[in-house]
Design a protein that fits this description.
This protein is an alpha/beta fold. Strands 1, 2, 3, 4, 5 and 6 form a six-stranded mixed β-sheet that branches. It is built from four helices and six strands. α1 crosses α2 and α3 runs parallel beside α4.
Amino acid sequence: MQHLPKDWTEGEIKLIGKVLTTTDGMPHSDIAIQYAAQLAAKYGAPLTICVVNIAHGGPRGPMIQHWSDQEIAGIFDHAASIARENGVSEPKQVSLVSREAAAGIVAYAEDNGYDQIVVGTGNKRGLSRLMIGSVAADVVARAHVTVTVAR
């Protein structure tokens, strides 16, 4: 038996309610943001842009985050401009701190009821083109919702 979404009513299934996309400020992320914004705009779904600030350091040493607050603000400004160009005027912005990007993304999506995650993957050549990026692959493997890998 197929399980239907909680908001199913009289033969209508709401396919996309909330869209989460991620960015690390790289060009492959721009493609994911563009796709996610177009998807959210088409279905009237809210869009959240997420940056995972990787935490480095050990339990006995200081916790050092990969990006400064100023760098994250710049990443968000760029991402929001792409979202606006593609139909989403006010995307929500979420900055997470995690030791592992994929784990942070999946946990946030599950804890906050997202229906769709859109991730990008780097521009690969040759045999590596057959593989998706490690963060994208981990999100696909761990997520309990639909994941789109945008290239």
